[in-house]
Predict the 3D structure of the following.
Amino acid sequence: MGAYLVRRFLLMLLTLFGMSVLIFVMLRLVPGNITDIIFDSAGFVNPAAKKKIERELGLDQPIVTQYVNWIGGLARGDLGYAYVSEKPAIDEILPRIPVTAKLAALALVFSVLFGVPLGVLSAVRQNTPFDYALRVVSLTGLSLPSFWLGLLILMAFVHWFGWIPIYKSTPDSPWRELALLSIPAAAVGFRASALIMRLTRSSMLEVLRQDYIRTARAKGASDTAVNYDHALRNAVLPVVTIIGIEAAFLIGGLIVTETVFNIPGVARFLVEAIRWRDYPIVQNLVMFIAVVVVLTNFIVDMLYVVLDPRIKYEE
Amino acid sequence: MRSKLAFVVTWAFAAASLALPALAQKQGGTLQVYHRDNLPSASIHEEATISTVQPFMGIFNNLVVFDQQKPLNSPETIVPDLAESWAWDASNTKLTFKLRQGVKWHDGKPFTAKDVECTWNKLTGKDKDDFRKNPRAIWWHNLKDMTVNGDHEITFNLNRPQPSFVSLFASGYTPVYPCHVSTKDMRTNPIGTGPFKFVELKRGEAIKFVRNPDYWKKGKPYLDGIEWKVIENRSTRILAFVAGEFDMTFTTDVTIPLLKDVNAQAPKAVCELVPTYVSNNLIINPTAAPFNDPKIRKALALALDRKAFIDILSSGKDSISGVMLSPPEGRWGMPKDVIQTLPGYSADVEKSRAEARKIMEGLGYGESKPLKVKISTRNIAIYRDPAVILIDQLKKIHIEGELEVVDTSIWHAKVTRGEYAVGLNLTGVGVDDPDVNLYENYSCNSERNLTKYCNKDVDALIDKQSQEIDLDKRKKIVWEIERKLAEDLARPIISYQHMATCWHPHVKGFVLHQNSIYNNWRYEDVWLDK
């Protein structure tokens, strides 16, 4: 196990290195840089002034030098300065991370809390009206874009309550924050919960037909014990995998949800930074997301061992 | 005696009634406004966007300013600001401002003529700490130098007379900056002498201002502060306004279809539809074949059905104008009957198109052999929509257009490099004055003359109108320029946009200007009747 962990750690480092090169190069392949944007808001371009700003920002240096400077800074904990706000990038990124983290966690909790039990129920009551209804709900969840669902929710709130649940300022209590974040979390988590529900259902159906389930029933175990202790435990492995993948994909869903609900998180900020070609923000944020994804994958792999004793990571 | 008493009482009552509006103004409250996007910086002088001017004009003062309470900007509505008075010398080349005494910057330092000198030195590139970008440098091309006469007087020395020079000082784009604050700090942490103090700018979230308790206009502003919340999604922000989360919309953010929604859902809201002085215009690259042929350029102009554009884009609300905005809002534009005499502006579109087809057929193009061309535009809906209509209209004269959407970040860079054949562009004008519009967009030396249109005769006429003191004579020259620009197809104007701004009825003391969106955001007269 120790050797596996070391190997896995090195692989993670290699992945992150590859990621850093990829994002660095890809950002510079996109047409235009910050100086184009700076002049765009002034409605003209002055080539000499543009060059001067490029020189000030170090954009005139060879790409390898720029990369080394960035990675060197990153290793020292210096993320550089945001091009647009002219503030330290860390000051721009840090306050936004907890907002997105809370939203993502809530969305994930929502999707698991709804997806797994409803998936189980749908499987054990296969081909009943309840199952059909849940299948329609899950199909709806998979088909509805989260931004559209978000807008519908906002319109409904304005129409019925004369109030709009958007983020205007930092809520003054954790409960208010929870209430405010739970609506967008539901909007973004709906799709994931639908996916989890469908996967849980199909995985459960497969397990429920196994001999050991029939044996458990023959032994007189209750339905709850059969469904949850025996069947779900064995059906949950692919579900955990998909939860891991969804956690990584969640950031994509959060971009639109944060925009619609006006939540000042990193997902929306990342898109804005890409639009502005604010390299220090984009590079560091993408690296942060890469670390989160790599760690999530690692945690999921470790969870396999906990969930299924037959799995062992050994030489 | 009784009648005398009755007269006195009546007079006193009338006087009290007249004084009532002033007494009614309430102090306090924070104005909540939404912002449509992330502004590029807080420095008004470095930007050419309403995104910066609207929130930040309130922290500054100008030397003079367009009266915030009068809807039409004109030389007659210019009122003193940091300058108590101003006067031209006999030669009309020296403009002297007498400055207000006892004014302090928000950091407590005194305001003096040196600050004025510094600001215009930066604007003319004579200061070491000059602006990173200077989009309105052309406004000050006639400024030779300045003479500081003590702490409270400054004279601007011009190369030649320029009667509208004072109007340039009155724009929201022309605040006075402090000498002791660097241009970098003005982009992120600006300091002014105005009614509101800057508190913070959180990118993508909020901009906060608080009342300046030491404002030199005693008793003003009425508001305790202004809070801007950035809401990038238009549907969300309009819903939030309808729900009463905001007192006011971002200016001209409400399109014609949205205006109907707002009127239906918030019927008490006050919404005013005004021209934005932003035009949809056609840019043709005269160096890119086959548009180097004036005949094809003429055919393009003849194909335009401006009314169709307006009907589709704004349900008929936008206006047809030449380069200068037409009356009633515009002061310098041609009236409708005169505009129709300009090349390409005929009301008989079918006749014009028949002539265009004839030109195209003469050049070897036809229904079976159309001219294929890319129509470039910025990847933003307000640019794309008219571009699509343009493509449809060009089909009528054997031109097959293909939409090329250009990433918004490189739009100006691409156009400046001349990497386009035909494009659809939007252009905003800061002050309703020919000196601003013509120099900025059509003179040979302007950096903002995107198409690099250059006609020495037109340049001479622009200079001629600029120094003409007689208003009627000046207007005549301006119309002559209009005609030449239309003949040369220099950025043909398709329409001038109309958009709405809305506020709830408890917002008082606010007047929306009708011939510029850039000049009425001081907020010192605004109060909340809550």
User: Anything to note?
Assistant: The radius of gyration of chain B is 25 Å. The CA atoms of residues 12 and 206 of chain B lie 48 Å apart. Chain B touches chain A through 49 residues (CB under 8 Å).
